[in-house]
């Protein structure tokens, strides 16, 4: 356990004083000390002085800071901890995820882990969740401006040519070993054109990878067509913002999970009937979301996705895309409950980003997906399937609780 305390050597004291006097900026502390731990300690003590607070906890952590300060977190001063719960076993019959899984959930919302645990037990007792990935394409969309419509049209026609796509595919080899350009779609608004590039990023979630790859493609476009690039990201991607384009066309992995739950299991485990659940799903998730103008038609996909993403070192901002989830519930011909969740945009990786940090790596290891897959891409697909099955568990339990009239009771008992 790292506890870099308040003891400073003479050199560190001198630098702290210079930070406090404004001679050295917080950002540049690392340039004046021998190791990154000293820099973290000096910054934290400086912030204590400047803000008039005394930290009691953030200095205690087990993170290997060398990699974190280089790759993840600028101006590091410590770490916050999020409690980790586990749900499961959750039985999954996916193409990549097969068998029983224990789901790591980093959350402070009482009743959430219990809910996913209940959903997992219902799914596992019903023979498991079937899961399939229907699309795999991480997007980045630069924006270009043209002097007039004629030139805009010429640009879009040029982009459509097979030979242009081939050149772009070749060009990105300058920037990535694993990334592959799959396709490009053009969107026009007046004299502005957006190119929405789709990439296979293998085991990386891929946003850094595709940003760098798109940058070299933009160089090619400038050289070969002479277009005026306005921004490397023009929001048609659409990264970390709710957008119909990502919900409809998909972004990252598009994943669907299904389960059929026997009527008596619904009654004994979820304390309601399949018919009551279908009614709640229809009037709440479908009609209620439509009336609200929502892009998501689910109960709390974001809850499950946030807890898993934080546990597994994913970028939590991509919870936005996770919330496009659509939940369906029907009664099959035997009177059992048939439930599906469709997640159009799951942005997950098992290499890069926060996946290398020790505690997050432990969670990925728990799921058997840390690092590169045996065949690159297999681990991130397995993780995406596990995320979808976990969302299915969360939907079943919460809709069950609302159908049984247990939502408030559960949160009164477990959440306060
Ligand atoms: C809380 C339960 C699960 C109780 O559910 P229950 O059926 O009354 O509890 P039970 O004691 O009969 O236990 C049934 C199973 O639940 C699990 N379970 C039960 N308790 C625990 C526990 N302490 N720790 C771990 N697992 C637990 C466990 O799997 C257990 O099976 P067993 O192990 O006994 O064979 C249920 O009422 C429930 O799921 N409620 C919904 C809670 C929920 O999903 N909250 C999520 C947050 S809500 C929110 O943020 C979004 C919202 C609501 O605003 C969105 C919207 O608009 O809808
Ligand atoms: N830059 C941006 O605009 C944005 C960045 N982010 C951040 O980006 C980070 C995630 O980006 P991401 O690109 O996933 O991660 P990294 O930038 O960490 O890149 C992943 C690296 O892993 C290498 N790699 C090794 N093995 C594999 C494998 N099996 N499959 C794929 N790649 C492999 C790739 O090499 P190579 O490239 O040579 O193939 C790549 O360089 C997160 O920290 C996130 O917060 C989020 C949103 C936007």
UniProtKB/TrEMBL annotation:
Its EC number is 1.1.1.34. One of its GO terms (molecular function) is hydroxymethylglutaryl-CoA reductase (NADPH) activity. Keywords: NADP, Oxidoreductase. Pathway: Metabolic intermediate biosynthesis; (R)-mevalonate biosynthesis; (R)-mevalonate from acetyl-CoA: step 3/3. CDD domains: HMG-CoA_reductase_classI (cd00643). One of its GO terms (biological process) is isoprenoid biosynthetic process. It catalyses: (R)-mevalonate + 2 NADP(+) + CoA = (3S)-3-hydroxy-3-methylglutaryl-CoA + 2 NADPH + 2 H(+). PROSITE patterns: HMG_COA_REDUCTASE_1 (PS00066), HMG_COA_REDUCTASE_2 (PS00318), HMG_COA_REDUCTASE_4 (PS50065). The keyword Iron does not apply. InterPro entries: HMG_CoA_Rdtase, HMG_CoA_Rdtase_cat_sf, HMG_CoA_Rdtase_CS, HMG_CoA_Rdtase_eu_arc, HMG_CoA_Rdtase_N, HMG_CoA_Rdtase_NAD(P)-bd_sf, HMG_CoA_Rdtase_sub-bd_dom_sf. It comes from the Archaea. It is an enzyme of class 1 (oxidoreductase). Coiled coil: none annotated. Pfam families: HMG-CoA_red. Belongs to the HMG-CoA reductase family. This is 3-hydroxy-3-methylglutaryl coenzyme A reductase. It comes from Methanosalsum zhilinae (strain DSM 4017 / NBRC 107636 / OCM 62 / WeN5) (Methanohalophilus zhilinae).
């Amino acid at each position: 356990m790292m506890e870099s305390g308040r003891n400073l050597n003479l050199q560190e004291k001198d630098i702290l004083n210079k930070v406090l006097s404004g001679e050295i900026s917080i950002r540049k502390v690392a340039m004046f000390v021998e190791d990154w731990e000293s820099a973290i300690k000096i910054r934290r003590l400086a912030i204590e002085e400047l803000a008039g607070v005394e930290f009691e906890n953030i200095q205690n952590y087990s993170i290997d800071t060398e990699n974190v300060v280089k790759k993840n977190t600028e101006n590091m001063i410590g770490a916050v901890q999020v409690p980790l719960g586990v749900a499961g076993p959750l039985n999954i019959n996916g193409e990549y995820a097969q068998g029983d899984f224990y789901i790591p959930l980093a959350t402070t919302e009482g009743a959430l882990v219990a809910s996913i645990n209940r959903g997992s037990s219902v799914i596992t007792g019903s023979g498991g969740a079937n899961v399939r990935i229907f699309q795999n394409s991480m997007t980045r969309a630069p924006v270009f401006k043209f002097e007039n419509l004629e030139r805009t049209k010429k640009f879009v026609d040029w982009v459509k040519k097979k030979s242009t796509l081939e050149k772009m595919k070749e060009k990105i080899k300058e920037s990535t070993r694993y990334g592959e350009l799959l396709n490009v779609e053009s969107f026009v608004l007046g004299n502005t054109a957006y190119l929405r590039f789709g990439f296979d990023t293998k085991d990386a979630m891929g946003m850094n990878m595709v940003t760098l790859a798109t940058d070299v493609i933009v160089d090619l476009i400038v050289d070969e067509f002479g277009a005026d690039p306005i921004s490397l990201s023009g929001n048609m991607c659409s990264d970390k913002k709710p957008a119909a384009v990502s919900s409809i066309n998909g972004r990252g992995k598009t994943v669907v999970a299904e389960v059929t739950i026997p009527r008596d299991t619904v009654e004994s485990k979820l304390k309601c009937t399949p018919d009551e659940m279908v009614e709640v799903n229809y009037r709440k998730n479908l009609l209620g979301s439509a009336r609200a103008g929502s892009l998501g038609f689910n109960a709390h996909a974001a809850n499950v996705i946030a807890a898993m993403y934080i546990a597994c070192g994913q970028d939590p901002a991509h919870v936005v895309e996770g919330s496009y989830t659509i939940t369906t519930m029907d009664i099959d011909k035997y009177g059992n409950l048939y439930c599906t969740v469709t997640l159009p945009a799951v942005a997950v990786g098992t290499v890069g980003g926060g996946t290398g940090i020790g505690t997050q790596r432990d969670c990925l290891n728990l799921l058997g997906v840390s690092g590169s897959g045996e065949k690159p891409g297999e681990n991130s697909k397995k993780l995406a399937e596990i995320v979808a099955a976990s969302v299915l568990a969360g939907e079943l339990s919460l809709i069950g609780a609302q159908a049984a009239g247990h939502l408030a009771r559960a949160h009164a008992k477990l959440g306060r």
